[in-house]
Amino acid sequence: MISNRAIEDGELSNTRGALTFWITDSDDVRTLQNWKSISADEFRTQLVAAAEAFPSLPASEQENQKHVTIFVHGYNETWADAAAVYQSIVSNLFRGDASLGLCILFTWPSAGAPLDYLPDREQARASAPDLAAVLDQFYDWLLAKQVAAARNPDRACRAKTSIIAHSMGNYVLQEAMNLSWNRKNQPLLVSLVSQLLMVAADVDNDLFDDDAAPGKSAGDGIANLTYRVTALYTGRDPILGLSAGLKHFGKRRLGRSGLDRSPGKSLPDNVWDVDCSSLIPPDATNIHSSYFQTSSPKTLELMRQVLRGVDRTVLATMGLVPARAAAHS
Question: Which of 103, 146, 222, 245 has the highest Cβ tally under 10 A?
Answer without folding.
Answer: 222
